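Sequence in, structure out.
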Amino acid sequence: MVQGANTRDIEHERRRHQRAPLLYSGSLYNGEYAVDCVIKDISVSGARLLVERAIDADKGFVLDIDGVGFIGSKIVWQADDHAGIEFLNDPDTVQSWISAAWGKDVVRI
């Protein structure tokens, strides 16, 4: 660990894209079941979710965001009632979907 740096600083350095804070409802679908969630923050490459229950990380799924659409995703971490997901779509594509739906640059590449 870099001396004088805290865990949050190091985590931010590892991120490929800047995250934007957000409180927006969504749902995760894997073809067998749906899990409701709240999107806590989002970037063009992934999101942090508040989930109502654990998600089977071995299954592929899509995140359905009202007005944005379905984004192919995979679980990269889970802890208690939170999960981190990585989007499987190209960051430019995700940015265009989010910008078209919400009318502004919520996320940036």
